[in-house]
Amino acid sequence: MNSHDNSYHPYLIPFGPSLSINQTYSTSPNLYMGNQPPSFIKLTPKKTLRTRSLWKPIYDPYYNFLGPVKRSRSTRCPRRHAQMMSHHKASVNPTYFRNGEEPAPRFRMPDQGMLPESAYQMIHDEMALDGKPKHNLATFVTTWMESSADRLYAEAFNKNLIDKCEYQQTTSIEKRCIRMLADLWHAPYPHKTVGVSTTGSSEACMLGGLALKRRWQKARKKQGKPIDRPNIVFSSAVQIVWEKFANYWDVEPRYVNIAPNRLWMDPEGVLAVVDENTIGVIPMLGVTYTGIYEPVAVIAKALDELQSRTGLDIPIHVDAASGGFIAPFLQPDLVWDFQLSRVKSINVSGHKYGLVYPGIGWIIWREAEDLPEDLIFHVSYLGGNIPTFALSFSRPSAQVLLQYYNFIRLGRSGYYEVQRVSQSVAHFLSNEIQTIEPFDVLTNGSDIPVLTWRLKEGFTSNWDLMGNLKIVFYS
Ligand SMILES: Cc1ncc(COP(=O)(O)O)c(C=O)c1O
User: Are residues 199 and 392 in contact, defined by beta-carbon separation less than 8 angstroms?
Assistant: First the structure.
């Protein structure tokens, strides 16, 4: 073992009694730091030196193997040192730094590295200024899993999901999840259809939109018709991903406006904007801002009638980012999924009501032929022939395993219980909030367990619902 290997030894060193951190922390040689102690000794007050010497043989396994001093660049170069000090505000320099370690510039990679504990502590402390994930209700994303799931995560975080030949069991588990979702959403052939895991619903929506666009292009080409003006239809309350999709892939967005007395996309609005260039209609099962389900079955029926009148065959992709893991359990009789033959694909966020940590989404196609074959790339250089349809290549695999963990750990009855409890919380809160005079409950969690409320008209002109004070000028 050469001395560099030492840097990988864990420094699980307890602090000694009555010693402050910068006095006692180990200064073991490190691959990146060079050996610092002599300069430290020079600069350290006597008392500290004594205390440190006292503890050193116990704490520092490499005490006797310290090599020659390599001074840090800042002490070798006084001008630079002064510069660094004057840029102090733009650097991160916690008090527990070992002597000889440089402050880390905020916006430039430091010339020298630092010991792992210093780097850890710096980042750990900075994170303390973040919000607390468990208090974050803003994005519906899972912030807690049980400890056995955490253990699984820790065992799998270094596996690259794309490496399907190397991690064949992970691949097999991913496939099982796809089959289970296809089955949950009533695909006619859950064992034959296709689907992929993604980083979240956003990537899944992009893939769904691309499949719709390619399918439309192929059909148009077959008919000898132009393909230069595709459009896509969704409500004006759509999640931003669909606006991104339209922008990034050159598809005209066509909005069906919602109204205060109708907070969802209605079939009349859809029929008013679709035409032969429409690649698809995107109802949301769980509108992001209200939690409301858009009426997929009614929209599908309207499009069926349009087809029988005009021959236009316009497919539906359901953005079930939230509802895909709610409706099958809380509203099992609602028909919104592949039971409707017009629904060609569905996406869901595994990291929302799928109850997995951030970083997982899914898209499933009704039947294999609904995903145009020419969108699939076959990668051979990782060994074998790996079909891939994704916007990214390398991805963590742990979340896929955690999704599977939840499927087998909770089962359908477990998912039902979790979602039912969430919904009862939403109902409780909405009932209580409704009794507070200035507020008017808009949605009470009867669709996805999300409630929304508004300030009653004219109740106050001084505050808005975010708690922002509106500035009032008195003359
Ligand atoms: C309806 C809808 N679609 C897509 C998304 C994007 O989901 P993700 O954060 O999983 O990318 C969201 C997120 O809130 C959503 O509500």
Answer: yes
Tokens coding 147: 């400890």
Q: Where are the domains of the chain?
A: 3-127, 147-407
Cα distance between residue 218 and residue 315, in whole Å: 14
Model pLDDT for residues 137-194, shown as the tens digit of each residue: 777 899 999 999 999 999 999 999 999 889 999 999 999 999 999 999 999 999 999 9
Tokens 């300069």, residue located: 39
Number of H helices, E strands in the chain: 14, 13
Q: Among 343, 427, 391, which Cα is nearest to 201's?
A: 391
CA–centroid distance, 247 to ligand 1, in Å, is: 17
Domain spanning 147-407: which CATH class is it, in words?
Answer: alpha beta
Beta carbons of 162 and 393 less than 8 angstroms apart: yes
Q: What gap in Å lies between CA 417 and CA 271, rounded to an integer?
A: 38
* pLDDT tens column, 360-413: 999 999 999 999 999 999 988 777 788 899 999 999 999 999 999 999 999 999
- Enter the pTM of the model: 0.80
- 350 CB less than 6 Å from ligand 1? no
pLDDT of res. 29: 29
Q: What is the pLDDT of residues 187-235, one digit of tens each?
A: 999 999 999 999 999 999 999 999 999 999 999 999 999 999 999 999 9
**Rounded Cα–Cα distance for residues 81 and 73 (Å):** 8
Token pair of 330, please?
A: 């809380």
Are 200 and 351 in contact, with CB atoms under 8 Å apart? yes
272-284 residue pLDDT tens: 999 999 999 999 9
The number of residues making up the chain comes to 475
Whose alpha carbon is nearest atom 16 of ligand 1?
288
Of all atoms in ligand 1, which is nearest to the CA of residue 140? 14
Cα 295 from Cα 334, distance rounded (Å): 10
415 contacts 325 by C-beta, under 8 angstroms: yes
CA 414 – CA 433 distance, rounded (Å)? 29
Q: Distance from the CA of 321 to the center of ligand 1, in angstroms?
A: 5
Token readout for 185 is 């959403």
